[in-house]
Amino acid sequence: MTIRNVLLDWSGTLADDLPPVLDATNRVLSHFGRPELGREEFRREFCLPFTEFYERVLPGVPMEELDPLYVKHFDASAEPVTELPGAREFLEHCAGSSRRLFLLSSVKHHHWERQAEQLRFRRFFEHPYTEIHDKRQHISAILESHGLRREETLFAGDMEHDIDTARHGGVLAVATLTGYDSRETLERSQPDWIVDDLSELIERS
C-alpha cells in the first residue's frame, strides 16, 4: 500500500493536552456546581463531538455559555502540553518522503497555533483544519479540495470519532493508543490498524 497523504488529529495523537483539558473541564464543572472528574473517569466519559459530552455532563447549558468559559480556563491553566511519543519521528518521516500532511482537529485554532509553535510542529502541515466539531462532515470536502485520492490517504487519531471519520471518508483508518480512548474502545470501532504510537506507521506506510 502506498500512502501519499496523511491526515492527523491533534489532541492525543500528536500532542498530550489532556492535563490542561482536564483542568479546564473541571473548572467548568465546578462553576456549575458539578463534581470534578478524575483523569481516568474523564477519559471514559469524554467523546467527540465534544458537544455530546457537555450535553451529558451539563444538560441544558448552551455551548454559547460553555465554550468561552472553557477557553478562559484552558488559557489560564498552568498544566503543560507536550509532544507524544513517536509524533516527531513520524512527522519528519512524512516530510522526508514528500507525503502531504493535513491536520483535522476540534482544537481551538489559537490553541493549535500556540502549541504547534511551541512544539515546532507547525512547519510540517500543508493546511491545518481546526475547530472542526464533527470531522465526519468535513473529511470528504477536504479530500476533494486538495485532490487527495482516498486509496492513497490515511487518517490517524486516538478516538472512536476519528475512526468513524476515516470510514466516512473512505480512507485508511488508523487508531493510536497515545490518547483519550482505550484500546478496548478503539477496537469496537474496527480501525484498519492500531498502533502504540505514530512511529509504527513509518514501516507500515
Short description:
The protein is of the alpha/beta class. The chain has helices at 18-31, 39-45, 50-57, 63-76, 87-96, 109-119, 139-145, 160-169, 183-188, 201-204; strands at 5-8, 15-16, 82-83, 100-104, 127-129, 153-157, 172-176, 193-195. It is 44% helix and 14% strand.
Number of helices: 10
Average of pLDDT: 96
Low-pLDDT stretches are none
User: What is the structural class?
Assistant: alpha/beta
Question: What is the topological layout?
Answer:
Blueprint: E1 5-8, E2 15-16, H1 18-31, H2 39-45, H3 50-57, H4 63-76, E3 82-83, H5 87-96, E4 100-104, H6 109-119, E5 127-129, H7 139-145, E6 153-157, H8 160-169, E7 172-176, H9 183-188, E8 193-195, H10 201-204
Parallel strand pairs: 1-4, 1-6, 4-5, 6-7, 7-8
Antiparallel strand pairs: 2-3
Helix pairs in contact: 1-4
Task: Describe it.
The chain has helices at residues 18-31, 39-45, 50-57, 63-76, 87-96, 109-119, 139-145, 160-169, 183-188, 201-204; strands spanning 5-8, 15-16, 82-83, 100-104, 127-129, 153-157, 172-176, 193-195. The protein is 44% helix and 14% strand. The mean pLDDT is 96. The protein has a 6-stranded parallel beta sheet, with helices on both faces. It is of the alpha/beta class and 205 residues long. Helix 1 (18-31) packs across helix 4.
